[in-house]
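ESCALATION

Customer reports they have been waiting on this structure for their group meeting. Please prioritize. Original submission:
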Amino acid sequence: MTRVSFTIARHDLALLKTDPAVGVVLVLVPLLLMGFTEQTFGIVLTADNGTTTSGAQQSVPGMAVMFAFYITTFVG
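Update from on-call: job pushed to the front of the queue and completed.
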């Protein structure tokens, strides 16, 4: 079973080497979106809670979950 998994992983990595745009989209886009949405989420969280909180508390987990679902489409 693990031999088959390693074979599939090696094949997927070979495909990713031929088209690096997929890696760029799955790594750089979440980082850029977190940078854009961090301030907005910080303002909203401060307005809701009345305390000074960082927008990263909302932005980082949200982007991580969303792009983890995108990665599963490539792995599957």
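Sent to customer with the following note: Residues 21-49 form the longest helix (29 residues).
Escalation resolved.
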